[in-house]
Design goal:
The chain has one domain (2-227). The protein contains nine helices and nine strands. It has helices at 14-21, 79-91, 97-109, 115-130, 139-142, 148-159, 176-181, 213-220, 224-227; strands at 2-6, 25-28, 42-47, 50-55, 58-59, 72-73, 136-138, 163-166, 185-188. The two termini are 20 Å apart. The model has no long low-confidence stretch (mean pLDDT 91).
Amino acid sequence: MILSVHQPQYMPWLGYFDKIAKSDAFVFMDQGHYKESEFQNRNKIRTDRGALWLTVPVISKCPGRQKISDVFIDHDIDWRKQHLESLRTYYGRAAYFKKYIGFFEDLYDRRWERLGKLNVLITRFILKELGIDTPLYFESELCTTATKAECITELCLKMKADKYLFGSGGRDYSEEEKFKQAGITLVYQKFEHPVYRQQYMRDKDHFLAHLSTVDLLFNVGPDSRKVLELT
């Protein structure tokens, strides 16, 4: 059994879903520490001028030590209106805009209190649209007691996983010996970013990679699964 884990991210990129698809089980690390200037509260979409960050403002206390599950959204800024208007502006003419915009209209019509819950709901929606049915779990529900590498090995043992899937950059911090001692084999993700038709794209050299997966959905729709080679 292959297990993978990751912090809940805001409108994650393609590699995030490739990782889940290649796993037999996936755990949201909602007890991990919130990190500023990463992808837990922001991601990028494509515009006619390049990439644009969509950022969810948060009330961050004790940076580096606050659990993701404890991060509240700051509503002093009307970020929901901004994000919805950005999607309408830059994807309004995309082939599958009408198919997906209803979800985001409902999403941004709701007042979200916690960042983690917002991120998980968006991730579940994208997983459904991509046809990925990997079972999902939460670190908070599995009651782990260890930290860092020990936490992951503990999760593997709890889930009866004999393999753990690291992201492509995992070799830099995987601490392989600890996994070996626990009888867990490490597997490393090999993800090659696909090129697909985008709004504002003149040719393949004008393609923008590492955007939110919503870019793929709005542009490619039901064929998104094929683009990610999940069939």
